[in-house]
């Protein structure tokens, strides 16, 4: 009987050791990036190889801001096709694209461009920053929001570049002074308070 108890105890110890050495590290590696809202930065436990095949991953650089991470991730989808109603990752419509990339930093945007226009805080064109959302009117409409993009670069004179899901080009970067978008610009909203601080979401 004493021998049996010793054998059982030995097996339990071996099991615990194997669990600690193999199961816990594998589980940890399967986890995705976590966004620490209170510190305004991304912390990372490396994603599994299977997850890396499905989604682009962000490079880990503690010196990068939240907006840097967001735009780095957004540009990894450049060239993906446009598809109405699609929220990625193989194709997107305009609001599906912004919804998808903001989800990477744990910010949940509304489903449509018009509904996203109700979130965050309004920003004057002269005060636009990288990471802001910019909105445009529907074709043949005087005011109705029908398109959204993500500001990627601020230019002099209240101009900017933005990455978005274009009906004809898919995910691409364009300039606000392009005639089509200059005529249809509605406004900008800020859902990230600053490059290094917490997020603002007001519905």
Protein model, in words:
This protein is α+β, with helices and mostly antiparallel strands and 203 residues long. It is built from six helices and eight strands. It has helices spanning 2-29, 49-54, 66-75, 94-103, 113-116, 179-184; strands at 34-36, 41-43, 121-123, 133-137, 145-155, 159-166, 170-175, 185-190. The strands form two sheets. It has a six-stranded antiparallel β-sheet. Strands 1-2 form a two-stranded antiparallel sheet. Strand 4 (133-137) and strand 5 (145-155) form a beta hairpin.
Concise synopsis of the structure shown:
With 203 residues, this protein is an alpha+beta fold. It is 32% helix and 22% strand.
Task: Calculate the mean pLDDT score and round it.
Answer: 77
End-to-end separation: 68 Å
Which structural category do the helix and sheet elements fall into? alpha+beta
- Strands of the widest sheet, in order across it, are 3-8-4-5-6-7
Instruction: Give the strand content.
Output: 15-25%
Strand tally is: 8
Order of helices and strands: HEEHHHHEEEEEHE
Q: Please give the radius of gyration in angstroms.
A: 22 Å
Helix and strand topology:
Blueprint: H1 2-29, E1 34-36, E2 41-43, H2 49-54, H3 66-75, H4 94-103, H5 113-116, E3 121-123, E4 133-137, E5 145-155, E6 159-166, E7 170-175, H6 179-184, E8 185-190
Antiparallel strand pairs: 1-2, 3-8, 4-5, 4-8, 5-6, 6-7
């Amino acid at each position: 009987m004493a021998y049996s108890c010793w054998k059982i105890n030995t097996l339990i110890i071996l099991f615990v050791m194997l669990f600690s050495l193999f199961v816990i590290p594998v589980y940890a590696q399967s986890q995705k990036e976590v966004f620490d809202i209170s510190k305004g930065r991304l912390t990372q436990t490396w994603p599994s190889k299977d997850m890396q095949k499905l989604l682009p991953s962000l490079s880990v650089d503690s010196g990068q801001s939240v907006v840097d991470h967001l735009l780095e991730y957004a540009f990894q989808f450049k060239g993906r096709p446009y598809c109405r109603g699609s929220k990625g990752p193989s194709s997107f419509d305009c609001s599906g694209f912004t919804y998808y990339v903001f989800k990477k930093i744990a910010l949940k945007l509304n489903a449509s461009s018009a509904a996203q226009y109700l979130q965050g805080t309004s920003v004057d064109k002269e005060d636009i920053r990288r990471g802001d959302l910019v909105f445009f009117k529907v074709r043949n409409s005087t005011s109705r929001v029908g398109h959204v993009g993500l500001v990627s670069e601020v230019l002099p004179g209240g101009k900017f570049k933005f990455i978005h899901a274009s009906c004809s080009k898919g995910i691409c970067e364009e300039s606000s002074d392009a005639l089509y978008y200059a005529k249809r610009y509605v406004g900008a909203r800020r859902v990230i308070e600053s490059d290094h601080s917490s997020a603002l979401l007001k519905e």
